[in-house]
Fold these 4 entries.
Entry 1:
Amino acid sequence: MTAISPPGSTKFQIDLRRHLREEEEDRDLTRVICEIADASKYIINAIRTGDLGLAGTSNLYGENQLALDVLSDRILRKRMIHSGVVANILSEETSEVIEVDPGGKYSVAFDPLDGSSLVDVNLAVGTIVTIYEGSDLLQSGRNQVAAMYILYGPRTSLVYSTGRGVHEFCMNQLMEFTLTKENIQLQPSGNIYAPGGQRNLYTEGTEKYVSSLEEKGYKLRYSGGFVPDINQILLKGSGIFLYPHLRDKPKGKLRLIFELNPMAYLIEQAGGKASTGRQSILDIKPESIDDCAPIFIGCREDVERAEEYIARYG
Ligand code: AFP
C-alpha cells in the first residue's frame, strides 16, 4: 500500500539524503544519488532559461542534439566526475564510455534530458539514471543496484529505488527534495494506456491488444515524454505504457540501457512488470550501448495480457 504524505507530517519532511541514511544505504551510492539530485537544480535552470535551439551536433543515434541536451549532459557528467565514487559514465548524448576512476565503486548511465524536444512546447521532460556496481555498463538490467528519474513538470519530483521499494520526493521552495510517497505499489491492472509509435505500424498482436483495452474503457494518456508517461502510471498505480515492435522498427524506438532498464527496475520494484512482449526487459544482455527494444510496462496483469496477444498474433 502506497504511503502518502499527510500535510505537515514529520515523517514526510524527510529529505532525500536522510531517507537514504535511514535506509542504511551504502554511503557511496547515497553520494551518487544525491549528486544527481543536486545536478537537477542546474538542469531546471537550463530548461527555464536555456537556448531551445539545435546544438549543431548529433547523438549516438544520429539524432540532432538540442543545446539543452548538451548542457544537461555536461551538468550531470561534471557532477559524476567530481563525485569521487564513480568508475565509468555513459550518457545517451555521447557515443562512448567515459572512464573516470578505476577505483570508483559505481558506474552510471543516464539520459540527461529525455523528451527534450517537448521543452519548446512546454511539456514535461525528465532525467533518467541507472546505476551499477563496478565498471561494466553493459550488464543486464537485473544487475542494477539503483535507478531513479527526475521529472521536470509543474512540480519537480524525484523517484528512486535501491531495491527496497520505490519512493517519491518533491522539490520544496528551498529546492530540497522531501519525501512525498513511500513504497509506491501498482494495482494488478489499471485503466489508462499510453500507446507510443504509429498505430498503423502496429503488428496484429499489438493492434488487437490495444483494441481490447479500448473495448474495456481504458483511457488514453500519452504525452510523448517517457518520464511523465511512466510517472503517471506509477503514481496512479494504474495502467500500461507501450512502445512496441513496429512493422518498420522490430526493435521499437526506446533505448535499453538509458530508458528501459531504469524504468523496468522501478516498475518491477513497485509490483509491476516490464516486457518486450516476449521476455522481461531486465533479462536482456545488452550487446551495444545503442541497443533498443520494444516495451510493454506497467500493471502486471496488463503486461501479461499483452504478452498473450503477442504470443498468439505476433
Ligand atoms: P526525444 O528524447 O527525442 O524527445 O524522444 C522522447 C522519447 O525517447 C521518449 O521520451 C518518448 O516516450 C518517445 O520518445 C516518444 O516517441 P514518439 O515521438 O515516436 O511517440
Note: The pocket of AFP is lined by residues 114-117, 196-197, 224-226, 253-254 (CB under 6 Å).
Entry 2:
Amino acid sequence: MSILQTTVDPSSAEYAAAAEAMTAQLAELEAEHAKALAGGGEKYVRRHHERGKLLPRERIELLLDPDSPFLELSPLAAWGTEFPVGGSTVTGIGVVEGVECLIVANDPTVRGGTSNPWTLRKGFRANDIAMQNRLPVISLVESGGADLPTQKEVFIPGGRMFRDLTQLSAAGIPTIALVFGNSTAGGAYIPGMSDHVVMIEKRSKVFLAGPPLVKMATGEESDDESLGGAEMHARTSGLADYYAVDEPDAIRIGRGIVRRLNWRKQGPEPHPEVREPRHDPEELLGIVPADLKVPFDPREVIARIVDDSDFDEFKPLYGSSLVTGWARLHGYPVGILANARGVLFSEESQKATQFIQLANRANTPLLFLHNTTGYMVGREYEERGMIKHGSMMINAVSNSTVPHISILLGASYGAGHYGMCGRAFDPRFLFAWPSAKSAVMGGAQLAGVISIVGRAAAEARGQAFDEAADEAMRAAIENQIEAESLPMFLSGRLYDDGVIDPRDTRTVVGMCLSAIANALIEGTDSFGVFRM
Ligand code: COA
C-alpha cells in the first residue's frame, strides 16, 4: 500500500490563479450546457408542456431509479455548428431497476425531434457505447424522422441507426422503445427494430408516412390514429407489445420490462470496501495551471480520484515524464498512465508498452490522464529510435483489449494524443476537463511551421518575403488553431463524450468502470510486431 502525499497548497498564489482560471472556464461551460438544457427554446417547451407532455430529461428522470445518477453523454454535440447545441437528443447512462442502461431520448421541442447530421453522430456514439459495454438500450421516441432540409447528410449515413439496433439485438443486448408521440419514417423504424415496444393511447403515432404523404402516394384518405395510433398497433399490426394509458404508465411498463430482463453483469464485482481519497477532490480546481506550458504533477490528480489515495507506482525511476501505476477506483482495479512533464521520450514509450502488456495479462482496465505535447523531436532523439519506440506504444494501445478510459486534463497534442489512447483508438469513454486542449500541435508552433515553409518557398523562387503579410497570417492561424483546440469545439464534434468538472472525475470514471463491467474484461497477449 502506497498512499500518495500532496504538495498542493490551497493558500498559495499559484493555486489561487489556477483555480480562478478553472472556475471561469467552468462558468463558460455551464452557459453552453444551459443551451442544451433549453432544448428548442421557451416557445416550444411551453407548447410541449401545454400538450400535457414531458420533456426528454423529465422522462429520463422518471425512468431512472430514484436518486440514482445519470451520466449524460455528448451534451454539447453540434456546438459551434449551424445546428442547436445538443443535437436534438439526450443520451446517457442511467440505472433502471438496478440495471445500467444506455438511454436515448429525442427532444421533440427541437425541430420536431428530427435527426440532423449531429443527432446521428451522437446516436451512433451512444450505440457504440451500448455495444462495447453490453448495456441495454432504452429509446424514448418522439421524432419526425429525418431533418428534411439536410437529408443529403442524413439519409445515407442514417441507415446505420437501423443496422446498429438490429446488431445490438443480435448480440443479445436488449433494445426497448417507449414511443411518446410522433414517430415518423426513420422514427418508425426505431420501434420496428426494437425487442420490446410500448405505445401510449392517443399519443403514439407510428407510421412510415403521415396522412398527407399517403394521400399523395396512393390517394388514400386516412388520419393519424387509424394510420399509426397505439390502439391500431396494439390490436391490429402487432408493432406495439404494451399499451400504456399515459406517459407515466409507459415509463412504469418500461421499468417492468427491464426488471424482467434478468440482466447479469459479466465483468468482475468491485472490491466491497471502498475508501474515499485522502485528499480533497475540491482541490482538483487548482492543480492545472492556466498556462499549460507550466508542468504539474499528475499524482496530485491521482491522489484525489483513487480509493484511499492508494497508488502503487510502476517503474517510478524510469521514464519519469510518464507516471504509471495501479490503483482501485470505486472498488474497481485500474492501471493508470499519466503524463508528467508533457513530452514522451523513448523510455516513457517503452515503459508504457510494458505497462499496457501487464494490464492485459491482469485483465485490468486502463485510465489515461492526458497532458502531453507529443513525442520528442530532434536529431538525438531520432537517432535513439523515437519513431520506433513511439510506434511501439501506439501498437500496444491499439491492440490492447482491456477497456480504456481517457481523460484530457491539459495538453493532448500530436501523436502523443494517439499514444495516450485518443479518440481514434476507441477508448470506451473519453472526457475532457475545461482546461484541455487538443490539436496536431500548438497554434503558435503550427503558424510558425507554415511561416518557415512559406519563407523557404519564396527564397527558392527568388522572391521577396512579405513580412507584414506573414505576421498577419501567423496571428490569424494561431487564433484559429487555438479556438479549434478547445474542449467545447472538440466536444461539439463528438471527439469526446463530454467536458466535465474536474471535481466530478472520480464519480464519472467510477460510473464508466461500473458500466464497463457489464461486459467481460479480457486482456490479450497478441500485439502487432514490436520494432525493438
Ligand atoms: N425536417 C425539418 N424540420 C421539421 C421536420 C422535418 N422532418 N418536421 C418538423 N420540422 C420543423 C417544423 O418546420 C417546425 O419548424 P418551425 O417551428 O420553425 O416552423 C418545427 O420543426 C416544429 O414542427 P411542428 O409541426 O410545429 O411541431 P409539432 O410538434 O406540431 O409536430 C411533427 C411535429 C414531427 C409531428 C410534424 O412536424 C411532422 O409531421 N413533420 C414531418 C414529419 C415527416 O414527414 N418526416 C419524414 C421524414 S423522412
Note: The longest strand covers residues 175-184.
Entry 3:
Amino acid sequence: MPSFPPADRLSGLGTTIFAEMSALALRTRAINLGQGFPDTDGPPEIIEAAVRALREGRNQYAPGPGVPELRQAVSDHQQRFYGVTADPDSEVLVTTGATEAIAAALLALIDPGDEVVALEPYYDSYAAGIAMAGGVRVPVTMRAPDFRLDVAMLRSAVSPRTKALLVNSPHNPTGTVLGDSELQAVVDVACEHDLLVITDEVYEHLTFDGVRHRPLATYDGMRDRTLTISSAGKTFSFTGWKVGWAVGPAQLVRAVTTAKQFLTFTSGAPLQPAVAQALGLGDDYFTEIRTTLQAKRDRLCAGLRDIGFDVFTPQGTYFVTTDITPLGYDDGVAFCRDLPERCGVVAIPHQVFYDDPRAGKSLVRWAFCKRDDVLDEAVKRLSLLSS
Ligand code: PMP
Ligand code: GLN
C-alpha cells in the first residue's frame, strides 16, 4: 500500500476544530454551541434576491474580481459606515468567504521565512494560511480576564523579518473589540516598521453596549498599507453563502487577485447580487442585528454564570469565553470532548487557538447566535455540571 503523507507545510493542521466539533454534535444529537453559525436565516428579501438571480440566469462565471454591483456595494458600504473610499474596479475583490481572502492574501504577500505577527488566540485559518505560504507565525497573546492587546508584547514581536501584522477585531474567540488606543498602537508599530497590515473584520457590525468597531484603514498612514477583509456570513446570517471581500490599495488587491485566480478563479455568481442588496439594507437592519445578538449574549452569559463558570463578557462577535476552573475542570479539550455525552452540548476549547496550549487550557468558547429556546435548553442541560 503506497503511502502519501501530506506535505510538510500541512503538518499539524489536521481537521479543523469546527469540523470535528460539528460532527460530534451531529453524531451525539447535541446542541451545537461550537461552530459559529446562526440557526435562523438572514433577511427573506435577500434570499428572494438570490432566488431571482438563479432564475434570471446569473449562473455562469462571474467576472474574476466579482460582479460589478457587489464591488460597488462593498465600496458604498465602506464609505457609508467608515468614510473610507475604495475604487470598486481596482480596490475591491470579491472572494469565496473571508477564508479565501485570508488565504489568498497570505499566499500573495508572504514569502517563505517572512514573519507574520498575529493576535493570539487566533482564528485557525490564520495559522494554516501562514503555514501554506511558508511564513512564520509570531503570536501576541491576549490573556484572560480582559483579553486586551499587550502593546509591549506587540512591539517586541516585531523583528527585521516581520512582513505583516494580521489583526482581527472584533476578535474571535475572545469577543474583544480593539479600542482606539490599541488600534493606534497597531498603527504606530505598522508605520514605524513599514509593515503590511491584514485585518479581518468579519464581525464589524456585531458589537455590543454601544462599543463601535473602527477599521484600521481609517487611521492616518494606514490606507496604503492595509488590506481589510470581511464577509456577508456574519452580518447577514448567511454563513453558508461564503461571499467575502478584500478592500485595499490597488497594488495589494492586484496581488491578492493574482493568487485568487488560481484558487477559485472566481466566486459563486448568483449569491453576489443578493449580497450587494444586503449591504445596502437600511440602518434599521444593522441596529437590529446588533441588539438581537446582544440580548442573546446576555441570555447565555447569565445562564453560564449561574451554573458557576467564570464568564468573560464579550464586546462583539458570536462568542463568549468562559473559564471552566470554578466547576472543577482544568482541561478545555477533554471537557469539550466529554460534554456532548455528559450534557448534550458542544463547545469549542480555546487551547487549539494558541501556540502554547497551556495558555488557553481552561478556557472554553460558546456561540450565542442561536434561538432563545435553544440557548435556554443548552443552559438547562449544562446545569447538570453544577448539580
Ligand atoms: N475570520 C474570522 C475571525 C471568523 O470567525 C470566520 C468564521 N466565519 C472567518 C474569518 C471566515 O469567514 P467566511 O465564512 O466568510 O469564510
Ligand atoms: N468562524 C466560525 C467559528 O469560529 C467557523 C467557521 C469555520 O467552520 N471555519 O466558529
Note: The chain has a mean pLDDT of 96.
Entry 4:
Amino acid sequence: MALVTTTEMFKKAYDGGYAIGAFNVNNMEIVQGITEACREEKAPVILQVSKGARAYANHTYLVKLVEAAVIECPEIPIALHLDHGPDFETCKACIDGGFTSVMIDASSKPFAENIEITKKVVEYAHDHGVVVEAELGTLAGIEDDVKVAAHAASYTRPEEVEEFVSKTGCDSLAIAIGTSHGAYKFTAAQCTRNEQGILVPPPLRFDVLEEVSRRLPGFPIVLHGSSSVPQNYVKMINENGGKMPDAVGIPEEQLRHAAELSVCKINIDSDLRLAMTGTVRQFFSEHPDKFDPREYLKPARANIKELVRHKLVDVLGCAGKA
Ligand code: G3H
Ligand code: 13P
Ligand code: ZN
C-alpha cells in the first residue's frame, strides 16, 4: 500500500469510536518501533514530522525512512503528516515533497488571520490531493521553540468552529480542551496529589469537546499534547541520573473516552521520548563500558514498540482496524 491521506482512516475511526495514533518521528529507530507495533497489531497509523524534526534529520531522510516503513509494512495504511506547520511555505514544501497531510497551525493568530492562512494552505493542499488539519484554541506547553505558559492557554470556543471550518475548508480540527505539550503538562498548583504523591491533573473539558462535536457532526477532531507521561519511564529516568520531578501527563482513560467520541487523531510524542531516554539511561547505568549505539538503541526501539502497542490496544482502540 502506498502512503495514504487520513480521509478514509478518519471516517472509519469516527464511525467506529476509536482514534488513530499520530506519533512524531525523528530518526530510524523511532519509525521502526512505531511501525513494527502497528504492523503486528494491524493498526492504521499517522507518522508526523515537526519543523524541528525536519531541521534535525532533514526532510528527505525522514520521507525516505517513512517510505521504507511503507515497503516493510504493506498491509497497514500509513499517512505522512506535517505537525504544527508554522506557515504556508513550510506546508507547501511538505505538500510538494511527498507528505499526504499537513497541519497549518495559525492558532496563535487572531481568528480572521487564522482563517485566511488556513484557507490558503487548504486550497494549495487540496489541489495536490493532500488533506489539512487546522487548530483553534491554544494549548499550554512547549512545541518547537514556542512555549505557552498555562495561564496563556485558552480553550477552543465552540461558537467559532462552524464558521472556521466552513470558511477554511479544513479536513480536521485540533482543539484545546486541557491537553498540553511536553512532559510537564500541568503545574503542581493546577493538580491534586494522590496517596503515592503523584500529581493528578485537572480533567479534560469534555463539555467543550461535546459542544464542538454537536456543532460539527461527523467532523474529525484532533487532540494534541496527549502523552500520558508513563510514570515507570519517569522513574527509570530519575533512577539513572535524570531529574524530571513532577512530570505528569493526560490519564489514559480520558484519552480512551475522547477516542470513543469525535476525536479521530491523538498526538503522542513525549511518551516515546521518555521511553527512549529512560531505556538509554538505564542501559548506560548498567553497562558503563559499552559504546556501540546499536547496543543501546536496540532496547530503546524495543520499548518504543511495546509502548506504541499498548497505546494502540488499550488507549486508541485502533488495533485490528487496518
Ligand atoms: O508538538 C510538538 C511535538 O511534540 C514535536 O516536538 O518540535 O520538539 O519536534 P518538536
Ligand atoms: P505530547 O507532548 O503530549 O506528546 O504531544 C505531542 C503533540 O501534540 C505533537 O503535535
Ligand atoms: Zn502538537
Note: Residues 24, 50, 52-53, 83-84, 143-144, 181, 269 surround glyceraldehyde-3-phosphate (ligand 1) (CB under 6 Å).
